[in-house]
Amino acid sequence: MQPSGVASPVRRGRRPGAFVVHDPAPEEVGAPVDWSAWYLTDEDDMGESVEQGEIIRILLSCLSELLAERGITTLYCGGDHFFAWVRGEPLVRVSPDVYLLEDPPPPPRPKMWQTWLPGHRPPRWAVEIVSDDWKKDYEENPPKYAQLGVRELVIFDPEAALGPERRGVRVPLQVYRRDADGAFVRVYRGDGPARSEEIDAFLVVRRERGAVRLRIARDAAGVNLVPTTEEAKRAAEEATRAAEEAKRAADARAAAAEDAKRAADQRALAAEERLRALEAELAKRRGG
After folding, report:
1. Pseudo-torsion of CA 235, 239, 241, 245, nearest 10°?
2. 25-74 per-position pLDDT tens digit
3. Per-residue model confidence as pLDDT tens digits over 123-144
4. CA 257, CA 90: separation in Å to the nearest integer?
5. Where are the domains of the chain?
6. Closest C-alpha to 83, from 108, 101, 61, 105
7. Secondary structure class of 123 (helix, strand, coil)
8. Which of 25, 38, 76, 272 has the smallest number of CB atoms closer than 10 Å to its CB?
9. CA–CA dist 259, 144 (Å, integer)
10. pTM of the predicted model, to two decimals?
11. 36-227 has which CATH code?
């Protein structure tokens, strides 16, 4: 109850949210949860397609470069590993395509992260790349990751990114984020760039040689891209070559200047010698 004489502060925002089950069937009250609809078996988690694998490879590489350039060593970036969170139900799990894990235990890494075990924790950031069963990815992934305890979930739909004519109700990018009251809120839905608080960068959907890729950018316009390790290595090699070429050009200019100075000195010396010879000849004639 508001104390008498105290005005309610004027605030703007959403109402608090929580997971509540209204009016369950009588037989469901107090009954154990049937988790089987959320089971993810090894067979269900089939290997990714070639295209999906390339998206994952590039994103992981960019993420590694981002961590390296910021000097961050306490985060582990991985992909396609199981995370289970219900003790006694090891098949209730997800397998993010890309994830960031804070303070992981030392190697060897477990075959499956189980958050009830010491040192096992949910990823702080996860990316799911939408498969052929896009409705399942859209509808089931957010509540699963919400229960797992992920701080931020990115859902990338390559098919929707190929063009408006292929979308329907689908979108290239969705971002879900843990809010102050613990609610898992979809904070972005669109074409991107979309800001990620957990990696303090922007997610950009790009066409590269006819395919779509999810890239990381340092700026909101999505122009200043974080390179992959391969791109960073190539850029460093090109910078080294450019520096070496600039040094060779500078050395060549210095050598040419030295040659020109030497030639000028020789011409000056020859001129002096001719002058002395001329003066000697004049002196000889005057004396004669």
Report:
1. 150
2. 888 888 888 899 999 998 877 667 888 999 999 999 999 999 999 999 99
3. 999 999 998 889 989 999 999 9
4. 76
5. 36-227
6. 101
7. coil
8. 25
9. 75
10. 0.79
11. 3.90.1570.10
